[in-house]
Known about the structure:
Elements: E1 11-15, H1 27-35, E2 38-41, H2 44-54, E3 59-62, H3 68-80, E4 85-88, H4 100-109, E5 113-117, H5 122-128, E6 137-141, H6 147-159, E7 163-168, H7 173-184, E8 190-194, E9 202-204, H8 208-217, E10 224-228, H9 241-253, H10 258-269, H11 273-287
Parallel strand pairs: 1-4, 1-5, 2-3, 2-4, 6-7
Antiparallel strand pairs: 7-10, 8-9, 8-10
Helix pairs in contact: 3-4, 6-7, 6-10, 7-8, 9-10, 9-11, 10-11
Amino acid sequence: MKQRAEPDAGVLYVVGTPIGHLGDLSPRARALLIAVDTIACEDTRHSGQLLSALGSQARRCSFHQHNTHTRIPQLLEELRDGRSVAVISDAGLPGISDPGEELVRAAREANHGVICIPGPCAATTALVSSGLPSGRFCFEGFLPSKGRERKERLESLAVEQRTTVLYEAPHRLLKLLEELAEHCGGERPLQVGRELTKRHEEQVGPSVKAALEHFAQHAPQGEFTLVLGGATAREVPQYSDERCLEELRELIKRGLKASEAARELAPASGRSRRELYALLHEAEKQAD
């Protein structure tokens, strides 16, 4: 089958690069990175090693979470001028837990073409090698570092019945495993992928408890992708209408708004936030 010529003028290319093993760079990605006009890199020094090895002479510019405000307009101007632009991250597919998402959205809004050159992704690599169900799964990436939002995410994970993929840094891994043990239970299925596709690749599991014991004895090093098995139906008891109303009213007494109370109670109750809010609204109507 005849393929389209690449790169095309005024098109943004989202290019997947290796997450560890350089042999995972596709021939199509290699050719594109050599021929494109401009490459936006998360770290020009890090990506520069790969690009120099390829012999790419493209203009390089930094593009990361701290300079998106100024860099995106510049890159859009290049696209308007008919230049081809590629965006790459330090490893993997840009746009997943990555500022490439903002650039793609801005390019779409400005009616520029966007084409993805598929490549490695830590989330899917860990998922398919975990042995956990992949028919339905969700991606959480990095959890909020602290506070109420982190607590709410952990409570949601406790009752989430789909397989969930998370990222974590080595210095925070033990804390996350301890929190998963507290909220999800030590026997919840879990596979922790370390240094995926690299020389010291490792898979640690098969449960939260086993992973916690392992990394308590072996200091976490490298990059981690966690695949958490879903909660079983029996682990998600559903509160009765009466209990839900009682707890919702108690939360409102403590100063929460109705919508906030519904969101707070949803994970533990086995009911959706929308369902709880409607239940409370209907009860108030009947009381009137």
